[in-house]
Amino acid sequence: MTSEITLFVNPTAGGGRGAHAAQPAASALRAAGFSVRTLVGNGPDDALQRAREAVGAGTGALIAVGGDGMAGLALQAVAGTRTPLGVIAVGTGNDLARALGLPVRDPEAAGTVAAEALKSPRIRQIDLGRVGERWFGTVLASGFDSRVNDRGNRMPWPSGRLKYDLAMIAELAAFKPVPYRIRLDDGPVLEVDATLVAVGNGSSYGGGMRICAGAVLDDGLFDVTVVGDCSRTTLLKVFPRVYQGTHLDHPKVTVHRAARISIEAPDVTGYADGEPFGPLPLTARCVPGAVRVLAP
Questions:
Q1: Residue 182 domain-assigned?
Q2: Does one domain contain both 12 and 87?
Q3: pLDDT in tens, 28-44
């Protein structure tokens, strides 16, 4: 493995934390004996192209500095390759970092973890979700949660959990359950009126909302959480429980496990790793061991 490491930086992540996080992360890696190159693109397409070029040129690791969106962009460059992914989590949600047990908003500590992982004889492999040609690491959200995500992404402040709490309250006023058609693996089509369907490779989204609390990153399966036709009052009571994962006990909530899922619903957009993946219908499959990661 080459000793040159690429820091893949989103300078605007976390209200500007990304720009400041690269230096302490790079210092930790250099102190461990690695050469560090910083990569910043002119927009997502240019950044991804540069990241793919770095991977193709044999960089020792691609380390995303930012939030889940930046980590998700980095996944598009490293998935299916031998190049490991590191995450310096300084964004709003940081759910992939949480799932991996990485430090959050502590770039020096995260850089140290990446350096130690690179020097260890074993680098962890985890599953990824794939929709068409796009990969995701955490949760594919659709329904009420994707609309909350959409609103939260448009809000310049506040940050973290409070942003999604406020977005949830705002969306409650107009939301109604929608008719879904769901197919798990090769099973029959399930028709259900649902508030949301969340497909979890990881367990959380939105800054620690454990919507798929039982999801495991390396078991080859998604955890699929279906929240049924809740009233606004019930949803207001149930949805905050996602931070502890206790919503899974509610009678309106069902959980399935599958390696592939197709979901269809009218006027619903799917979001994964905090980014829009397009309108439903979408089909996602879990790809075992799709990426190597720098984690404890």
A1: yes
A2: yes
A3: 999 999 999 999 988 88
- Reported as a single tens digit per residue, the pLDDT across 189-224 is 999 999 999 999 999 988 898 999 999 999 999 999
What is the domain range of residue 105?
4-122
Task: Pick the last residue of a domain from 89, 122, 155.
Answer: 122
For residues 88 and 146, membership in a common domain is answered with no
C-alpha 120/C-alpha 134 separation (Å) is 30
Question: Residues 54, 260: contact at Cβ < 8 Å?
Answer: no
- 119-157 core/surface letters (b: 16 or more CB in 10 A; e: else): eeeebbebbbbbbeebbbbbbbbbbbbbbbbebbbeeee
Question: Which tens digit of pLDDT belongs to each residue from 96-119?
Answer: 999 999 999 999 999 999 999 999
User: Is 55 within a domain?
Assistant: yes
Is the CB of residue 199 less than 8 Å from the CB of residue 226?
no
